[in-house]
Write a structure and sequence with these properties.
This protein is mainly β and 263 residues long. It has helices at 2-15, 27-35; strands at 44-52, 63-70, 76-84, 87-97, 100-105, 117-126, 129-132, 134-135, 139-144, 147-149, 158-166, 175-184, 189-197, 200-210, 213-218, 222-223, 231-239, 242-245, 247-248, 252-254.
Length: 263
Amino acid sequence: MKSRNLLILLGLLVVFPSFVHSQPVSPLDKLFERWGPRIHPSDLRVLQLEISPDPVLEGQRIRFEATISNLSHYSARLSLFIKDRDEVVTSVQDVMIKPGHNRIIFPHTGYRFSRHEHCFTLEVDIERTRRPIDVVKEFCARRTYAGWSLREVRIGPLFVEDLDMYPDPAMPGQEIRFRVRLRNEGNPFRAGIRIQDRDQTIIFLNDVHVPSGYAEYHFPYARYAFQRFDHCLTVIVDVDRTPYRTDTAREFCAKPMGWTLKP
């Protein structure tokens, strides 16, 4: 009888070698992971992707953290990869993904930002096949005044406190120069600023720093032909190819009295 029990115990140790180790995953869980129902890539969603520190300066090492939703009722150990286009930025191997939300911390990486914008995707390795994971939104790092950031940029509110030109009044065909006094009630950012007459751009500045509070911007000289009875000018702030219209306390319209912006 004792010999029979000893043979059964040895058999269990052969079938379930994890009995001899102190592992956080039980032998039944390991068996279920291997032979149980599988997670499909369509079961996974990337809800959030963050970097630390944020913003990150050039040359700093960063760490990615992802929140992944598993819509299935099953758990599995998977390998995950963060990619920028076709380049693997960082990865984790054999991480447990449980039903519900999973917070995944990736190892530090010295990835360098080199383009205007870096949009990240995630892939999962299931049965030695990598497949993309759906994301609830784009996760793009953008260059800000303080460094590269994955956070959504809060723009404004923006107010044009003053818009004037030199010389004022201006003669037809004369070169003129504009000055804009801008008030930013949001976070600092980098942007392009342009002055428009209806849908026509008169002059613009590229990639300027817009701090919190007040700032003045002097545009280069431009030759603009005033032709209609009046020309009402607007200031547009462009952030990442998205235009933001500014509010003004009054209209800035040039009238044909020697063409002046003065009230």
